[in-house]
Amino acid sequence: MDNPEEKTTTALNPTEKKLQQSGIPDEASQAVEVGNRDLDDDIRSDNDIIPDDTWGNRWEFILANVGAAIGLGNFWRFPFLAFDYGGGAFFIPYIIALFTTGIPLTLLEMTLSQYCQQAMCRSFGNLNERFVGMGIAALWICFIIVTYYSVIIGWSNVYLIQSFYTPMPWSARGLPPSEMITVPSNYFYDDILHLNDAAVVELGEFVWFLFLGTFVVWAAVFLILFKGVAVVGKAVWFTVLLPVFTLVVLIIYGATLDGAGDGVVKYIGTWDMSVLENGQIWVDAFGQIFFSLGISTGIMSAFASHNGRQQNIVQDGIVVAMLNSSFSFVAGFAVFLVAGHFKYETGLTWDELQGVLGGPSLIFILYPSALSLTSGWWGNVMCILFFFTVFMLGIDSAFALTESIFGNLREVRLFDRLGPLPLLAFIVTACMALATLYCFGWGLYLLDVVDAYINIGLLAVGFTEAFVVGWVYKRNDAAEIVGSKSMLALELGCLGGFLAFATIGISVGNSTDLGLGYLALASILPALAIIAIGFVLCGTFSQVGFMKGIKTASYHGLGVLIFDLNEVLTRGTGKDNWKLPAIWGLALKFFVTPLVAFLLALKFNKFGIDSGYGGYIMGYQAFGIVVLLVCAALGFAGIVLPQIVTVEKKFPETSKRHPKQIVV
Q1: For the chain, what is the mean pLDDT?
Q2: What letter would DSSP give residue 644?
Q3: Interacting residues of 652 by C-beta distance below 8 A, sequence separation 6+
């Protein structure tokens, strides 16, 4: 006679086997079996959902995300950081940041939105309706960033037109070495930006040609977006691949110049490992990954919402992150080859060139000045090629940021009935109106301050993303399993450890120059000790056993989310798709969350020490603070009034799935 128990065991699905191994009662397994049948019905009915506005193919999606990521920051900030921190040594913290923070947050935004087929507001709202505020805050961040970003692209348009002049207004050819920086510098600040001391306290002169250059940017953005991702998907083959080609041309050209080898040595031939003891290099490396990938802007969410549900999104996210970093690395050669030549021609030292090796100064002073040294019309050709590349790099990011605004705004009740074309026209008009503020004499000052303050908003949204997924989602279900005392012990232990790390770390950073080793001993070790106590107490108080209690309290919500995402993203035609691994969720919870919180604390601490940002007068500081406060208010509005966003539920209900019974 057959053993009934044996038959039951052989019929178990993978989830039930996990439950049986975890020692959960049979009645719970039966409940999950019923729930899984319901879930299967949900998945079968949703698997073939294709958005109304979808990408033509997978590569269009990848190129659009790569184009959004490889903006001007990859060209003007990454090489400068490598220069500033001992050359190749900077790559070490940068690569660590890419894999521990950049890729996990990229995958979070992409997988959620592809699963839900919705932009950031609704995709996070699916986890909990009060999480919609993250999308609204991201909408505001994109609005602020794209307005001043479009003005920078407008500057490049002006330079592009003037590259046809002979001689070019910034030309350093024939000048004594002492004037090869001052002439193009004066031209940029005085003749282009109309920057002067009076502009610090006054509106300054309206610069009409900057306005026209910016208007061209917004006209291009509208033309690319007005037909949806069908046109975007075709445009990115040109706007992304052409800058890559022109960058290669610039590298080949730079390699032929005298002194170029010195630039390469400075970039990758110098490895000053002692800089790794400087805590700031780690902060800047993580910051570069965070901002370069466009995390917290909702761009990746907006683009992923136009995928079919079974696209290999985990692989796509990793490809995008790796291509972004690869472009940054290659762009460094384009910068340092030409910088080495300029150093050779001027006789200046690297220290003397430091002020123009990063930011707008690199693009609008050093690079065009160096290219202008080429004899004859060839200098004009190279400047035209360079500023066309700058325009293309910028326009990809500009329309990606605008698409994020568009996608999230459509999910807000106030705008959800407005047609796509009127909504896009409204967004473009509003952005152009705000961008006009930066076309006055005070433009660069205002841009600098707003950029500094809105970056705090980016970090805050990134922290919130990791926090709600790692610490809030299904928290009450986990507490019901292990007991409230056990759950609270883990939370307080981790919170205490994180606070100890941040508090001691910032204090040490402010008061000593003993480097990273002392920082580790002073802050990381005590933090780990406090966290370990929290884990021990969690297991001790657990009502389901020591190890099982720790496992459930620390991983339950993440386990449910990963299970749900993988069930849909890897079924049917996507059965060979890459899955989200458990380490992804653990990285979000125990690494990304405290790290981004620490970066936020450092930002606020620095602003407090400096009485604001950059020594600007109170009027500029107030403007930046208002921008940041609006971001915070919109985020909290989602918590208090979640009904302002219409959320279409995509995740299975707890009553069907019984996720509180799943212990991984």
Answers
A1: 84
A2: G
A3: 35, 38, 39, 42, 564, 659
Mapping DSSP to helix (H, G, I), strand (E, B) and coil, where does residue 592 land?
Answer: helix
**Token pair recorded at residue 187:** 């031209």
Query: Per this entry, what is the length of the chain?
Result: 664
- Determine contact, residues 275/306, Cβ cutoff 8 Å: no
Residue 391 resides in a domain: yes
Q: Is residue 176 part of a domain?
A: yes
Average pLDDT over residues 243-262: 92
Question: Exposed (0-12), middle (13-18) or buried (19+): which is 176, by Cβ within 10 Å?
Answer: exposed
Measured CA to CA in angstroms, residue 613 lies from 141, 268, 606, 621, 656 at distances of 18, 32, 8, 7, 51
Nearest to 489 by CA among 456, 557, 535: 535
Tell me the residue range of the domain where 79 lies.
58-104+146-297+310-454
The domain tally of the chain equals 1
Contact 407, 225 (CB under 8 A): no
Query: Is residue 160 within 8 Å of 388, Cβ to Cβ?
Result: yes
SS3 of 271, please?
strand
Query: Which residues are paired to 271 by β-bridges?
Result: 87
Range 482-518 burial, b when 16+ CB lie within 10 A, else e: bbeebbbbbbebbebbbebbbebbbebbeeeeeebee
Q: Which of 8-12, 322-326, 487-491, 524-528 has the lowest mean pLDDT?
A: 8-12
Q: Helix 58-69 crosses helix 313-346 at what angle (to 10 degrees)?
A: 40
pLDDT tens, position by position, 256-292:
999 999 999 999 888 888 888 777 788 888 888 888 8
Looking at this protein, which amino acid is placed at residue 19?
A: L
Q: What is the dihedral of CA 409, 411, 414, 417, to 10 degrees?
A: 100
Residues 165 and 156: their CA atoms lie apart, in Å, by 15
Residue 297's Cα: distance from chain center in Å?
7
Residue 577 lies in a domain: no
Residue 585 forms part of a structural domain: no
Summarised one tens digit per residue, pLDDT across range 195-225 is 866 556 666 789 999 999 999 999 999 999 9
Residue 577, SS3 per DSSP: coil
Q: Which helix (H) or strand (E) holds 266?
A: none
The amino acid sitting at 285 is: A
- At position 53, the amino acid (one-letter code) is D
* CA nearest to 258, candidates 183, 185, 376, 347: 347
**Dist CA 515 CA 127 (whole Å):** 41
Residue showing tokens 């006055």: 440
Distance (Å) of CA 329 to CA 78, 247, 267, 322, 550: 8, 12, 10, 11, 41
DSSP, res 71: S
Cα–Cα dist 138/484, whole Å? 33
- Give the residue from 101, 33, 37 showing the smallest Cα distance to 590: 101
Q: What is the pTM of this model?
A: 0.87
Closest CA to 148 of 624, 615, 635: 624
Residue 163 maps to which CATH number? Answer: 1.20.1740
Q: How does pLDDT run across 502-535, given as a tens digit for each residue?
A: 777 676 555 545 555 556 566 778 888 999 999 9
Rounded distance between C-alpha atoms, residue 471 and residue 351, angstroms = 46
